[in-house]
Amino acid sequence: MHVEFFGVPRERAGISELDVQADTLGQLLGKLATQIPSLGKLIGLNELHPAFVANLNGDRFISDPGTPLGKDDCVLILSADAGG
Amino acid sequence: MPFGYHGCYLRIDVSNGSSEYVPIDDTVLRQFIGGSGLGVRLLLDEGAALIDPLAPEAPIVFAFSPLVGSPLTTSAKFAVVSKSPLTGRINDSLASSGFAIAGKSCGCDAIMIVGRAPELSVVIIDERGVRLEPAIEHRGATCRETEAALRARLGANYRIASIGPAGENLVRYATVSHDGRHAGRGGSGAVLGAKNVKAIALRGKQRTEWARPQELTTISKSLSKRSFGPATAKYRELGTATNLLTFNRFGALPTRNFQSGTFDETASLSPEELSATRSKTRESCVSCTIGCEHIYGGTRVEYESLFALGSLCGVSDADAVLRASQRCDELGLDTISAGGTIAFAMECVERGWLDDLFKEVAWLKFGSGDALLRAIDLIGSREGIGNLLAEGSRLAAHAIGHNSIEFAPQVKGLEIPGYEPRALQTMALGFAVGARGADHNRSGAYEVDFSDKVDRRHVTLDAVRHAIDTEDKAALMDSLIICKFLRGVFEDFHAEAAEMLRSVTGWDVTAAELRDTARRIVSAKRQFNLLAGWTQAEDTLPARFLNTPLPNDPAASLSRERLDDLVSEYHRQRGW
Predict the structure, then answer these.
(1) pLDDT band, residue B295 (cuts 50/70/90)
(2) Which structural domain range is residue B80 located in?
(3) How high is the pLDDT of residue B359?
(4) Is the Cβ pair B246, A80 closer than 8 Å?
(5) What distance in Å separates residue B219's CA from the closest CA in chain A?
(6) ipTM entry
(7) Of A12, B216, B328, B568, whose Cβ has the fewest other Cβ atoms within 10 Å?
(8) Which residue of A has its CA nearest to B453?
(9) What is the tens place of the pLDDT at every residue in B445-469?
């Protein structure tokens, strides 16, 4: 699946997007934490720090580590604090 | 009198220079705290809802708070509260920094100004008392120039809030500026301008005591420490400008007067692009550990300014957008209302609807940075088409006709900030019911849209309670006053706010009491609006948002019926 980073996650990751294989949100976050150690402080035990959120395909926000993901999905990771 | 307060406000009549310290009852302080809450209460007592905001007798309040001057991070803030000349409804705008501390050190919890000075003047408050001095030589000066000149004249330790040329010219969305920051929304600069007050210069030495200083120090240290954590990383590391790419990805970036939710050239305005070719520095308000101000090539950059002067006007030339933002700051113009009104005019020009009113307006077109800059200058001086645009998009639409009010981007006359309501529908409700009009600082409902609590493009009545929560929380933060950029660091905001207030005032205040206080403050704003003529029909959005789905995202559709249902449920849950 495709992953896009925005804001602080993008800055910490040093990239704006990448492709990862994962069956669930928890698995995806675990892989991201391993592949991109600089994201470590954003990702706890297979879940995001409360200051960050994940969104599936630009539609719904997801937080349950068990949320199933498909190979055509796109997960967006961004700051929870959307305002300004 | 409780700790943390002086127990009075300073009422100044600039018509004759008289002033008096007016006691404030302890109960009022506890019920309304300070900042926005106290300001609204003082205005209600003064009968301000029934007065033309640009009339001499109209009051304007600079309200401080019990936390000002304490070691609590981000607490150096003040609220400017008046009836808005843009909306005819309540307006409370907040700004930060040394003016708040200096104002409270003048021995009062708020400063109320009424009357009209015989000539352009500066109000000076210091150890000699209150006096007016001529400010004729500062006519036409920018806010920054005025502050520099007055500090050179009076002394470097004065703190100054001033208006720019836009305020002098009664532009209905003129700001009050201090130290480069603005009480930006709703036209408080025009209210001061109508009083012939160019600036207020303060210096004071009267400190308040804290009830439990040791406890306050412990709380302050904890809060400061947390303010360096992940919850504020966005503001520290990137600033609000980073919203631009995020909102564009979600189809929620208002573009070309809300005709689209995406802007193809967003990347050219992104922080990454801005920093590629410009110097970048960071600044903080006094008493702030976050440091959210990101300055590119000498211009402070905020998301709201980038969206309003960039995508909303279809302008992708970063140099032009930064210059426009800087020009608004110099003139003392709210960037959101300036951009919103100009974008509206650009669409009217495109439709040929301004040809009857002005000889030559073809230059005012989407995408033109030169047109944007020219329009801003004309607004600031109220010349040519600028005189119409200085009225804001709602009044301009009434003058233009052609039913252009359907796409004038405003609620209650206040231009809509950078959140596309069809893509963020909890925020759409927040905009519709906002006491001061469409505003992201009085309703944080967008946070709900960016969460798993709702489906942001198909919200149900369940969203209403979340919208109310964010509105209540904002009312409390604006009255304490604590910066909203801290909101993510609190696990239980009301409990922690109660701890802060207890340590400063000595009151046995609880989280439950503060929830009631927040509701009281929101209700006071509504009461003000009711007195000023508000009806529920005002709690809506322009027809554009209710007739047409977003072109880039047909799923983002909000019908009038659904919005009406949300608004009715909001009123029901409020008990109104």
Answers:
(1) very high
(2) 8-202
(3) 85
(4) no
(5) 21
(6) 0.96
(7) B568
(8) A61
(9) 999 999 999 999 999 999 999 999 9
Are the Cβ atoms of A61 and B450 closer than 8 angstroms?
yes
Q: Each residue of B21-57: pLDDT tens digit?
A: 999 999 999 999 999 999 999 999 999 999 999 999 9
Farthest CA pair distance, chain A? 34
Predicted TM-score (pTM) of the model is 0.97
Residue B131 tokens read as: 């006096």
Q: Is B395 found in the same domain as B250?
A: yes
Alpha carbons B517 and B40: distance in angstroms, whole number: 13
CATH number for the domain including B299? 1.10.569.10
Nearest-neighbour CA in chain A from B242: distance (Å): 6
Mean pLDDT over the full length of chain B: 96
- Which positions in chain A have a beta carbon within 8 angstroms of at least one beta carbon in chain B? 4, 6-8, 11, 41-42, 49-53, 55, 58-63, 76, 78-84
Cα separation, B318 vs B266, whole angstroms: 10
Q: Would B212 be classed as within a structural domain?
A: no
What pLDDT is attached to residue B557? 96
Judged on CB neighbours under 10 Å (0-12, 13-18, 19+), B15 is middle
Chain A CA closest to residue B441: A84
CB contact under 8 A, B303 and A84: yes
Chain A hits for B240, Cβ within 8 Å: 83-84
Residue B177: both structure tokens together: 């500026």
> Last residue of a domain, which of B377, B406, B435?
B406
Domain tally, chain B: 3
Task: Provide the 3-class DSSP secondary structure of residue A72.
Answer: coil
Q: What is the CATH number of the domain that holds B446?
A: 1.10.599.10
Domains of chain A: 2-79 (3.10.20.30)
Q: Cβ separation of A81 and B303 shorter than 8 Å?
A: no
